[in-house]
Structures are given as C-alpha cells and as structure tokens.
Amino acid sequence: MSRPDPRRLLSPLRGRLVALVGAVLVAVAACGPATASHDPADRRIHVLATTTVLADLVRNTGGDRVLVDSLVPAGAEPHTFAPRPSDMRKVADADVIVMNGLGLDDWLRPIAAEAKRSDATLVELGVGLDGVTYLTGDTGSGDAPATATSTGPVNPHLWLNVAYAERYVDRIADALVAARPSETDAIRSSAAAYRSTLADLDASIRSRIGALPEDHRRVVSFHDAFPYYAAAYGLDIVGVVVPVPGQEPSASEVAALVDAIRAAGATAIFAEAQFTPKVADQIAAETGATVVATLYNDSLGAAPADSYVGIMQWDTDQVVQALR
C-alpha cells in the first residue's frame, strides 16, 4: 500500500496556518496604527526575500541602494517553513518582494495577498526564465507547475547552476530599477559587477570539477536539490536518500538506493547542513561510501558559507575533496 505524499498533506496545513496568521494581522491592525519595521527616513529600496540565498543575491545586485531582509532564517528549511504574524508585517513594509517560485516558497502568495500591498512588486525569480533547461523533481509544495521544457513538476533549485543565478540577477535588477528609476545607473552598475563575479565563479567550478576523472563523479544527494548543479558541472547523481524533505525513506527505498550505489560505484553521499545525516550514515555503512554532511543549497550558513558565492565555493570544495 503506497503512503500518502506528505507534500500534499502539508499544503492544506500550511494554508490553515497562513489563514490563522492573516487573522492575527487583521486583529493587530484593528487595535491601532501599524509600526513600520524600518526607519521611514531610510530611502533605500526595501526588499523582502523568502530565503537568505535570494536575499544575498538581491543585496549584491542592488548594492547600497537596497535594504534586504529574508523570511526564512539562515539554517531553516523553506520547504516546510510556516509563516508567523511578524512575517506579515515584513511583507506589508516591503517595496519589492522576491521569491523563487516553482513550488519552493509558494506559501508566500497568500501572505502577500493578505498584506494588501498593491503597490509592492512581487518577483518570481525562477519562473519563465529564457535560456533555462528546467528539470523535474523535488518541489516545495508538490504542485509546482510544469514548464514548456518539462514533463512534470519542476525542480526549483535553479540557482545552484551559477549561470542561472546570473539570470536571477538580471530579473532582480529589472525589479529594482522599476521600483526606483532614479537609481537606474547605480543599480545597473552594481548588477554588472556582481554578474562578472558570478561568471568567474561559474568558470572556477567548471574547471575544478572538470579536473576530476569522470568515473569519480558519481554521487548521491540527501534530497533532490542538486540536479542543476550536477547537470552544469558534470556530476552524475545516482540517487537521493530522502525522496521528500521531512519524510524518512522506506526500507525498500533504502535497499534500492544501496543497490544503485553499488552498481554505479558511487563513493560519496552529500547531505545538507540543515538535515540530520542519520539515514545517510546508515547507507554509507552498507556501501562504504563517504558521507559529507555540510553542503548548503536553500540557506546560507556561517562563514565562509554566509553568502551565495560562499556556499557555491564551499560546496565545490566539499565535492572536490570527497571525489578527488
């Protein structure tokens, strides 16, 4: 008997939580005037991003013309994030709201609607990007739409291909310019400088992983967050430990993965820092693979992984060291 998909079960629960938060915000608003979460005299563009990774992309794109905050804190998991009443106030105060879309952070939509900011710009960075090959797989809500280049729910982790993150930067810059046309030159200049940094980063990752023997590039990931990274830089992901974030795999799924690892000769299992590696450790004990449980994808971490460039460099360091 098949188990219910927890992404489907989580969606109505998250909806009820959002409705409850909205009711709390309405009650708070009825008690008196709202207090802004930032200084009204601050003339920077106030941007709210769903995750710390997206917030860092905004910060580097806009430079000193933006003031950026994120809803999901560093180290937390956006797939299972539940908003709080204080998050509604952040949405209400923002000039520009940035989300990834594609199911990762669609819990933002009802919050933004409840905040009633008709003048705020909502930007979905991952949806409908030109020049992107969308891959199917892991989603945040289980109901992300397919695109013209996919046959099922789209994997939302586009930014782990640095070339795609550059397209995020372009979309962010366009939104910031639209919000503050008087700052067009400064924003475009900052975005161009950051794009140059990202182009260098992309070339470095390609070079470092490209130097590994091809038969050393077979890996397992904890959940399906790295297909864009693998496709861009030449890794072969032979399986994932956890098909759905927040749900442990069944015994049959573990057995199938163990068989796949042995058949492919995969030598490393990569797990993210925000997840416990217990199941990965068990699989490693059966296969002899090495577990690297310190990667980042949805969230920033402590230095040196405290920026988008930092997590991409850090993750590549771990990959190269494990596969060398």
Per the CATH scheme, the topology name of the largest domain is Rossmann fold
How many structural domains does the protein architecture include?
A: 2
| Count of helical stretches | 10
For the biggest sheet, the summary is:
4 strands, parallel
Within CATH, the superfamily of the largest domain carries the name: Nitrogenase molybdenum iron protein domain
Instruction: Give the low-confidence spans.
Output: 1-14, 16-36, 138-151
CATH architecture label of the largest domain: 3-Layer(aba) Sandwich
Q: Strand pairing plus helix content: what structural class? A: alpha/beta
Alpha carbon gyration radius: 20 Å
Mean pLDDT: 84
Tell me the strand order in the biggest sheet.
2-1-3-4
First-residue to last-residue Cα separation: 42 Å
CATH C-level label of the largest domain: Alpha Beta
Shape: globular
Number of strands: 8
